[in-house]
Amino acid sequence: MNSPAEWYELDRNRKMEEKMAGENNGLNGAGFQGAGFHGSRDYVASEELMASVNVAIALKKPLLIKGEPGTGKTKLAEAVAASLGKKLIIWNIKSTTKAQEGLYVYDTIQRLYDGQFGEEGVDDISRYIKLGKLGEAFDSEEQVVLLIDEIDKADLEFPNDLLWELDQMEFYIHETKRTVKAKQRPIVIITSNAEKELPDAFLRRCIFHYIDFPDQQLMEEIVKVHHPDVEENLLKNAMEVFYDIRAIRDIRKKPSTSELIDWINALQLGGIPADRIKKALPFVGVVVKKDEDLEIVKHSGSLF
Ligand SMILES: Nc1ncnc2c1ncn2[C@@H]1O[C@H](COP(=O)(O)OP(=O)(O)O)[C@@H](O)[C@H]1O
Ligand SMILES: [Mg+2]
């Protein structure tokens, strides 16, 4: 670990580097033509979202993506990796995940076990150090995309515990006295469903983008990525009902993009004629998942 003075110096150097990068990376006018992220065949990204991705890459900062569930946050990381031809490493965060697990774990149990059974090489601690997802991303020879998915699932300390490592792109393994330093700085994408607020110090270091719920035009494009041959009237009627359901004030869980995609799939497979959708709400359970919401939707039939 660095002392506060060293930390300050490192931070100052980083700012200088960023300033210089900002002057040379075409941010001041030329834009991101050529290289960079421009969406992909199976992912529809708004201009603003593409710009945020490219700014984060140019400034070498983590991109923090917030938005309702189902707005394509996880899928964005896949699309960025695929379109830039880079490997994607996914760190799925759960309520019990600790920052340390992303760096490395020392498998003492295995070592003890091996020791008892007289295995060779027990003295070599490095055999029992397993890199976590962040460690793997740092250790990779090629630049990778690292997705830290649903960071708000973990406890409040979690983002703060990763600040130093994400800033400096390195960490120290005490047991083996080895520093793992990023060979190629990974492109870091962090997602949050906004279940919890994230600490200010963490937010300061990220480029932030909120994915708005898609408007009807964008949604049409997204659906067509998944169902290119969808019949126009079926799509139009299903979307109308979908947005009407979302607009009901008392609804507990608003249906998401992925639910609309599934619903259209069900309607197509079921051979439902477009004009029956509004009247009969076929397979509505694909879109509305809570009993209370189903009741509300059924009683607001006049809406559709
Ligand atoms: N912009 C988009 N382009 C293409 N598909 C999308 C888009 N947004 C959402 N989807 C679809 O919705 C599903 C849910 O997206 P996902 O990335 O898992 O959402 P989130 O991580 O925000 O909860 C994806 O599997 C994809 O099929
Ligand atoms: Mg997700």
Structural write-up:
The chain is α/β, with parallel strands linked by helices and 304 residues long. The chain has 2 domains: 32-96 and 132-210, 3-Layer(aba) Sandwich (Rossmann fold), CATH 3.40.50; 216-303. It is built from 14 helices and 9 strands. It has helices spanning 4-24, 47-59, 73-84, 99-103, 108-116, 133-139, 157-161, 163-168, 200-204, 216-226, 232-247, 257-269, 277-280, 291-299, and strands spanning 63-66, 88-92, 104-106, 129-131, 145-149, 170-173, 178-181, 187-192, 207-210. The strands form 3 sheets. It has a 5-stranded parallel sheet, with helices on both faces. It starts with a helix and ends in a 5-residue tail after the last helix. The structure holds adenosine-5'-diphosphate (ADP) and magnesium ion (MG). Residues 43-44, 67, 69-75, 222, 225-226, 257-258, 261 line the site of adenosine-5'-diphosphate (ADP). Adenosine-5'-diphosphate (ADP) is lined by residues 43-44, 67, 69-75, 222, 225-226, 257-258, 261.
